[in-house]
Amino acid sequence: MSTNRSRSLLTRLHSQQGMSLVEIMVGVVIAMIGVVIIFQMLATSEARKRSASSGSDIQVSGILGMTTLERDIREAGYGYSSAAYDNAATPVMGCTVNAYDTARPTNAYTFRLTPVQIIQGASGAPDTIVVLRGNGSTFPAAHVFTASTDTTKKTRGRAGLSPRDYVLIARTSPSLNCQLAEITEVDDAYGTCSTCVDALTIQHKQGSYSYITYLPNGATQIDSRTARYNNPTPPTSFTSGFIFNLGNGARRNIWTVTANNNLQVSNDLLYLDVSPADGANDAVAVTEGVVNMQAEYGIDANNNGQIEAGEWTTTDPASAAQWANLLAVRVALLMRSGQWERTTVTTVTPSWTGGAFTITNLDGTAGATTPTDPTRNWRNYRYRVYESVIPLRNILWGSNIQP
Q: Is the peptide bond before 174 cis (omega within 30 degrees of 0)?
């Protein structure tokens, strides 16, 4: 009896001992393996999510940058497209424009009369693209003036010219010369009094002047401002020539890529230095993630109405005739993802129709033309190229407009 009771008690004690140490260790190992697998899956998923998100970001940035740049270039040449006319009428495209701005640190400056100017970056660095366009509301044909002083021009007809308008004053003889001015008055009237003039003369004087502002409700009001763009001592005296109306909101947009990979633009005709005051014209950031920008001219050298393979060039047109044959520009933006990848994800140097891009590392040091050096960290980022051929429609439409 006691033996059976002892055996029963011993059996119950054995059944209550639980898991052994070996069993516990095996369970812990299995659990750790499961945790490692879960964390690896999470890390892989997070890395892929970051790559996808970063790729989406540069896609949006690239589309935004190219769309904005393309829209600006399509407007190039508006207001003075007939300056390229090559039949001894107004062949002044490409001339040096003498300009003046009271807001600039150095008031007098110059620029070229070109719809688009491509300034090549040194050794494959990003190019600079300059776009000059007007915004006048009238047909962009040249006005002819037949008499001139340093502050007035007598035209054959001044329709469409208004106070506050930017105008380009140009001549071809005795030498090619151009000047930027601001119209201050066009209200001369017919009459016989000694102070009345001819209803054809415009003025571009210094000092304050008044002009009419048309309000949305149809009413008008008289406003005043001080002339900003008229040089008190013009470098050129004109006797006759042409006037091109750029409207009151002309822009000379300068597109650049900054060292921190931003595509930015500044208006060279509206100098503004406020934030911060650093002695340079303020620029507006358009998009980020741009590491290079390259561009080429498309010049129809043989006048067959199209740009052939050998007619794309980085060389500026040399004459008004060549500017008249500038039909398009080709632009490419190289975008870089902000996500660093553990492995080399870019094995081929990014390129565009004009050739391979020059790649730099994130610290600005030169990258290899072929990805063989393991220290070249640019290979650990993903890239995307946005490229477009942009027709210069104002040059196409306006190159045969005679004054």
A: yes
